[in-house]
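Hi V.,

You were right to ask for the full record rather than a summary. Here it is.
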Amino acid sequence: MGKIWDIGFDTVCDSVKLLPFLFLTYLAMEYLEHYTGEKTARAIQRAGRFGPFPGALLGLLPQCGFSAAAAGLYAGRVITTGTLLAVFLATSDEMLPILISEGAPASMVARILAVKFLFGMLFGFLVDFFHRRPVKTAGDCGAGEWERDAAAHGEMCEHGILRPAFFHTLQVFAFLFLITFVLNGAVAWLGEESFRGFLLARPVVGEMLTAFFGLLPNCAASVAVTRFYLAGAMSAGAMTAGLLSGAGVGLLVLFRVNRDRRQNGKIVGLLYVSAVAGGLLVSGLGIVF
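Predicted structure:
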């Protein structure tokens, strides 16, 4: 019982100290989404067949609604399949706030973002090369595309940026607290060496499992993957696979607004295979973050 109290105390100490950094990070992200969201959607819409490049680049922006907007644009035949995949692969979901609040080196953050951008763009162009899907031109699209997508996602920003930043911080803090408790308990009961030899740190199996876990349309997935990697329980390849497949709420919105279920299933399959391939490439090339 004493060990459980110690684990709980360590978890509180480890988690509470991150609260100010989480809130400030989300405040900055809400500002970006509030004032630049529509512009980024328009930029990706105008890119046409070159969409995977701006899609991967803009997908890196810490905007929880951008993958949802891309799903809406795809359903309206405004962007290509490769562009949607590039956005999904590059989307960071909750990775950036966790890395920033944990004080991860800027070089590590930059390398992770660079890898996500490169894989998003690469797999996006590959998909478009083998699968040409006709899309509308920018002039064919109604002026309210972004507004409808935002409404579907439930983020019209009418409450400003303080309120959503506060509630987003509390939500992620709850997941972070739970995951930190599990990590501290695993280290305490299994020992550090056994913990670092965890299943998710093993080659191939780790990439496949974390890529599948990343598909869950919940911020807990990216929080867990990032936190496990920082704790040393996951290889760089496994983390890459999990973060590549983690498209936030994009998949939920896709299944809601796009009626072609078979097409949606193919996109999920492409996302999973691309994420596993990206993770295996990182492991095979010996890339270290």
